[in-house]
Structure formats: structure tokens, C-alpha cells
Design goal:
Number of domains: 2
Radius of gyration: 22 Å
CATH topology of the largest domain: TIM Barrel
Oligomer: single chain
Strand order of the largest sheet: 1-3-5-6-7-8-9-10
Order of helices and strands: HHEHEEEHEHEHEHEEEHH
CATH superfamily of the largest domain: Glycosidases
Number of strands: 10
Length: 261
């Protein structure tokens, strides 16, 4: 075989390997690669940007964060991890929750749901640790793990948590979950009345076809004031609509009177 033919064959094999590697391993995750080694791809067409934080972000420089921007727009809202299960409170919750309001951001608090722990105990633990005020975003239930539960069992426990917290605050909690998890475990009409916060990374547009309020589009965002990666989100509406979603004093007072009785 002539040498040129040998080298041509080797070249074709290498080219085929590179194509297959890109097609199966790079292409589907190109948004993540870009985010890690450069700037994340921020969704177009949305004006209201926000973050969610926990102790994983360590100590936040709030002075820098309050002046930070995403695509030239300020950080308008921030969700803070509060509790997990029936006994764990995020070590940075109180400081993060306080600082968010002090720095003029709409704030919310979320509970990480542990499926194999009693839902009522989890709801009561969240309510004991978290005291939402007028102007805060609705409470959030983070559901992303089914544990050993069947779909009906998980749905029943999620609804129990939502019902207890809704009764306390007089407002429907937000459900946070992943795009595929939503379709597999929470794809039931009984959840349609709740606002959705959907996590779906490395795509140009959220592929969920139902109604949604928030989209967590990356977990590798870079924002001034936060060391390391942070989750970035957008609100599916205007700033006025975000304000309309928040708790008001009347609903809190009415629920408080109801609880006393």
C-alpha cells in the first residue's frame, strides 16, 4: 500500500473519531463547556434576573453583589436555602436572608425535600425556621429526589408539605424541580395551580411546555461578589409581575388570625 494511502486512511479514522467524540460528548453539553471555560450563555428575551444561594457560596460580598449585573441588568431576586429534611438548617441562611432584603433584592426561602422523611415534620420545621414577611417571594419546595417512593407516594407527600405551608402563609408555594424530574414524577394536574421554578441547563430555551414562573438555566454562573459558581435564574415576566407574586400583609394577617382560632 502506498504511503499516501496509509496516511489518508489514518487521517480519515482520526477525523471520524473526532466527529463522533464531538457529536456524543461535546455537542450535547456545549453550553456547559462554554460556561465552565468562559461566560455562560444567558437566555435572550428576559429582563428580570436572579440567583439562588446556600452555604456552598460561602461568604458573599453583598456590597459588590448588589451592584453586579447580568447582561447589563441588576440582580432583582434571590432565593436562599433555608432547611432540609426535618432537622437541618443551612448554616448561612439567616445571614443570607437578612442581607438579601438589606440590599434591596426580592428574597425567597426554599426547603430541600427529603422524600423518606415525614412531610408534615418537614413543613413544620421549615415554618419554625423561616419567617417570611410582606414583599418576600412565596415559600419554595425543592423536589429533586424520589428516594424509595413510588410516584403516587411522592406526590402525596409533596402535596402534604405544600398544603401545610400554603395554609400558614395564605399563598401557594413555588415548586422547584428539574425538567425531566417534573415530567416523570410531578406531571399531574393536581400541581398545575402552583408556580413552577424549573431547572434545565445548557439549552437555548426552556423546553418545558407548561406554565412556569422561574427558570434556573445554569449552575455555573459567575457573578461579582460571589466566589465560585452560582445558580442563575430568570423570571418569566416583568418586574411588576414579580412584585405581584410576593406576599402581602393582608394575607399574612388573615392567616395569622385563622391559625390562632
Amino acid at each position: 500500500m502506498p504511503m499516501w494511502a496509509l496516511f489518508a486512511g489514518i487521517g480519515l479514522i482520526v477525523a471520524a473519531y473526532m466527529f463522533l467524540f464531538y457529536y456524543f460528548f461535546v455537542g450535547p453539553f456545549s453550553f456547559r463547556w462554554k460556561a465552565i471555560y468562559g461566560d455562560p450563555d444567558y437566555p435572550d428575551g428576559y429582563d428580570v434576573h436572579g440567583l439562588d444561594v446556600s452555604h456552598y457560596q460561602d461568604r458573599i460580598d453583598w456590597e459588590r453583589l448588589r451592584n453586579a449585573t447580568i447582561q447589563g441588568r441588576p440582580i432583582r431576586f434571590i432565593f436562599v436555602k433555608a432547611t432540609e429534611g426535618s432537622s437541618l438548617i443551612d448554616e448561612n441562611f439567616n445571614d443570607n436572608f437578612y442581607q438579601a432584603r438589606q440590599n434591596d433584592m426580592r428574597r425567597g426561602a426554599y426547603h430541600f425535600f427529603v422524600p423518606n422523611v415525614d412531610a408534615a415534620l418537614q413543613a413544620k420545621f421549615f415554618l419554625k425556621q423561616v419567617h417570611l414577611e410582606t414583599g418576600d417571594l412565596p415559600p419554595v419546595l425543592d423536589v429533586e429526589n424520589a428516594g424509595t417512593l413510588t410516584v403516587p407516594q411522592l406526590q402525596q407527600r409533596v402535596l402534604q408539605w405544600l398544603s401545610i405551608v400554603e395554609k400558614h402563609y395564605g399563598i401557594k408555594p413555588i415548586i422547584y424541580t428539574g425538567y425531566k424530574f417534573k415530567l416523570k414524577y410531578l406531571n399531574s394536574p393536581q400541581f398545575d395551580s402552583y408556580p413552577y421554578w424549573i431547572a434545565h441547563y445548557y439549552v437555548g430555551q426552556l423546553e418545558y411546555k407548561g406554565s412556569w414562573s422561574f427558570w434556573q438555566y445554569t449552575d455555573v454562573g459567575r457573578i461579582d461578589g460571589i466566589h465560585g459558581y452560582v445558580d442563575c435564574n430568570i423570571f418569566n415576566g416583568t418586574l411588576k409581575q414579580l412584585h405581584q407574586l410576593t406576599l402581602d400583609r393582608e394575607s399574612i394577617d388573615v392567616v395569622g388570625l385563622h391559625d390562632e382560632n
